Amino acid sequence: MTLNLPSPDSPLKIGTRGSPLALAQAYETRSRLMAAFDLPEAAFEIVIIKTTGDDAALIAKDRPLKELGGKGLFTKEIEEDLLSGAIDIAVHSMKDMPVLQPEGLLLDTYLPREDTRDAFVSPNVKTLADLPAGAVVGTSSLRRRAQLLNYRPDLKVVEFRGNVQTRLKKLGDGVADCTFLAMAGLNRLGMNDVASSAIQPEEMLPAVAQGAIGIERRANDSRTADMLAALHDTATGQRLAAERAFLAALDGSCETPIAALAELDGTTLRLRGEVLRPDGSESLSEDKTCAIEDGAELGREMAASLLAKAGEGFFDWRQ
């Protein structure tokens, strides 16, 4: 059966948010599809979709994401357009995706994963350890806030939300002494020189699925499913299966400081997971290995173990 490929007269519509990083991810997806099927750029249309989260971020720049409604704010309109047929696929940063998708949608295609580490960015010092006592750190990530305060309770943390360019401007304006970004995002934007240093996972375990791009589609769209199969990176899928199972079992959301990283070595998967009190006063972690095919089960088991250790009230929010 011949695959009905898109053409300039009937392009495949790729939905994305409009930030420079979101567009870079959409362009990467388009480039990979062009190469896989020998298609011209005109066979694809990039559709920029403004989300409720984008509007909320502009109106309430200094409020934590959890107060605005969470991760789903940045996917709702995109997924509505996908379900309606206004777009054919949606490109997402996987670390920002809820663990469940709306009925009728599937998120089962991942591009090769980029650098998973956090980037430490400061105009004055090279590493996190070099920060003087009382230094001001800007971050909107509850995970990074909790990890930072666990490691350096002497530091002051302020809300620091926005895209990469917005956060760098705030840093330049002196709102904070340093901030964190994802190395993957900087690499995709050609801005890796912005990082003062990359933070190793042993010092700061990354967010679940950090560095991974996911492509969402309609469950009943067989043509798109066949096309996306040519892009899917099996190793990334295996790693994310473990990490996202861990997140799902913890009922993870933007209100919960959770970190995880799965890595492959031959036929073995290593999973590191961490949960923290929101104020950083306590951290619980585990580091285990299993056969790759058992990664999701290990993720669920690790989550159950950490929840048992944490006990009631561990994740209660305290400013």
Description:
This protein has 319 residues and is an alpha/beta fold. The protein folds into 3 domains: 12-112 and 212-232, Periplasmic binding protein-like II (D-Maltodextrin-Binding Protein, domain 2, 3-Layer(aba) Sandwich), CATH 3.40.190; 118-199, 3-Layer(aba) Sandwich (D-Maltodextrin-Binding Protein, domain 2); 243-310, Porphobilinogen deaminase, C-terminal domain (Double Stranded RNA Binding Domain), CATH 3.30.160. Helices cover 33% and strands 22% of the residues. It is built from 10 helices and 13 strands. Strands 2-1-3-10-4 form a 5-stranded mixed β-sheet, sandwiched between helices. β12 (268-276) and β13 (283-291) form a beta hairpin. The longest helix is centred in the N-terminal third of the chain and has 18 residues, at 20-37. It is globular. It starts with 11 loop residues before the first strand and ends in a 9-residue tail after the last helix. The model is unreliable at 56-60 (pLDDT under 50).
